[in-house]
Amino acid sequence: MTTIAAELPDSRLSPSPRDWVRAHWRAALFVAAMLVLFAATATSLATRDPNVDALLELERAQSAPIAQLREAATETSATQLRPVAPQDALTINAAIPVSNLANPAARPFRMTGTPADRLRSLECLTAAIYYEAAREPTDGQRAVAQVVLNRVRHPAYPASVCGVVFEGARRYTGCQFSFTCDGSLRRGPMASYWEQARAVAEAALGGYVYTPVGWATHYHANYVVPYWASSLIKSATIGNHIFYRWRGGWGRPPAFLNRYIGAEPAIAWRGGFGQPDAAERLAAEGGERDAAAAAAAEEAADSAHSIDSFQRAVLRRYEAPLQRDSARQLISERAGTSGALTASQRWSLTGDEPASAPPQRPLGRWSTAPTEPQPITIAPPSPVQAPAQPSAGDATQAAPSR
User: What is the reported pTM?
Assistant: First the structure.
């Protein structure tokens, strides 16, 4: 019997679930807590406010270092220029050496988003290349495109192409690219230059990297001197533009961590944002001077110690207010008489083409195509007739005077 009982299975070797829980209550409690935590997490994710991610991103963007960096970026706008003549600016800029520090190439840019977003980014980048470097060589246009895409990936700037190009465009001061706030957009683009800029933009958005500028985020024309130029690192000179990057860690590759947002804002930039062009601003400044001079002359007339000759001098000086046409003529004259300006710089200031340039066909709806000159037909000369023999009476006439 003893042998048979030993061979029979003991039912106590398979305890019931209740017995297992009693024996392993700590493990059972831990498993139950994990299940409750998992259920709570799944419920919170299912009922999460869709604006939470945006709020978290905004909180991260408003952290102290990023806020300081974006404030510094605002101060490096295209309108913060020293009052320096173009000839002096060329000398000052040439005296600043290009940095010999490492200048690694940027990473290829990868486009995402819908076809509409892709088209908007292409149009915005084309506009930046055209209005900033239409008369520059191809490398100069590639360098401008590279700066725009570098900014898209830097936390100091928006994470979209159109956001970067038109940042601050609705303000006369604070725009990051001068063409967006100086009235240049009121001048319709020319087809051949626009198509060239579009080709450069397509290549850049498709992953082409222009390596000489590295991770540059700033540039300016060599005939101006911005206040911020001395606070950045001069990394390259391409054509008529000088390129810079941030100092310290913000200018190194690890700082470019912004992810392209993939959605481009719809910005109605064609035709400008209502800003006056250069001639209108100059005329407005002349009108303000006229008003100030008239007030000064009136105040001088009311004063017992005023000098009449001074009053007449003030009135004579401002008796012909500066109008838009005269302001445009003044700009053209100054650009034409400056020997230090290149053809690209004169075109940027006046928009005029040299006489030797081929006729351009304007784009879009701003103007009509130029008319082709009609050939001039010149009639062949008539045969020369033999002079008549002088008569005897003509010999007595006086010789013609010289």
Answer: 0.60
The torsion angle over the Cα atoms of residues 290, 295, 301 and 304, rounded to 10 degrees, is: -140
Residue whose token pair is 């250069």: 278
pLDDT at 29: 80
- At residue 315, does pLDDT exceed 60? no
Whole domain around residue 11: which residue ranges? 2-41
Is 4 a residue whose pLDDT tops 70? Answer: no
Calpha distance 223→317 (Å, rounded): 31
- What is the distance of C-alpha 1 from the center of its chain? 100
| Cβ burial 78-113 (10 Å sphere, 16+ → b, else e) | beebeeeebeebbeebeeeeeeeeebeebeebeeeb
Cβ pair 145, 211 in contact under 8 A: no
**Residue 8, pLDDT above cutoff 60:** no
CA distances from 17 to 22, 33, 36, 230 (A): 9, 18, 20, 77
Q: Is residue 273 part of a domain?
A: no
Please provide the DSSP assignment of 70-113 as one string. Answer: HHHHHHT-TT-B----HHHHHHHHHHSPPP-S--PPPPPP---S
Instruction: Give CA separation, 9 vs 2, 13, 20, 104, 328, in Å.
Output: 13, 8, 19, 76, 109
- Residue 332 covered by a domain: yes
Residue 56 placed within a domain: no
CA–CA distance, 311 with 40 (Å, rounded to integer): 84
Ramachandran sector of residue 278 (left: φ over 0; alpha: ψ -120 to 50; beta: rest): alpha
> Position of tokens 């351009």?
360
